[in-house]
Write a structure and sequence with these properties.
7 helices
């Protein structure tokens, strides 16, 4: 009887650790991006327009989405010499590299959307897609 009680106690202690998902290393970059997006949105007061990525959001927030946002924010950081958008772009690059995504190849031949949105809207799309990706565990 004592042995059964001991085995049951061990099983109860171990089962929550087994059942809880472990965070993926790549998602660490995504979580850092979420923090940076919040800081960037709080400090950003200019009305700057960038390419709209709504079609990439609607198609499921795949690799093309993360590559495109990385590209947009990297170009924006070069123009404005901004540090917050550059930090986000660097973390997106690390996320894409960790998943073995070749953004240059993926975005090759991709035509611009033709519509533009404000940067805070782009960052809202990014937050949405990060949350979807974290939920799916990819």
């Amino acid at each position: 009887m004592m042995m059964l009680l001991l085995v049951s106690a061990v099983a109860l202690l171990v089962s929550p650790a087994v059942a809880s998902p472990t965070p993926h290393k790549a998602n660490g970059n995504l979580n850092h991006i979420l923090e940076e997006v919040e800081k960037f949105n709080a400090s950003f007061n200019k009305q700057v327009f960038v390419e709209d990525v709504q079609d990439l959001v609607d198609s499921g927030c795949g690799d093309k989405f993360f590559c495109k946002v990385q590209d947009i924010l990297h170009k924006h950081a070069e123009i404005t010499k901004g540090s917050d958008d550059n930090v986000i772009a660097r973390n997106l690059k690390a996320f894409n590299v960790h998943r073995n995504v070749n953004c240059t190849e993926l975005l090759h031949g991709m035509t611009p959307a033709g519509t533009e949105i404000l940067i805070p809207k782009l960052l809202d799309h990014l937050k949405h897609c990060i949350q979807q990706t974290n939920f799916r565990g990819k």
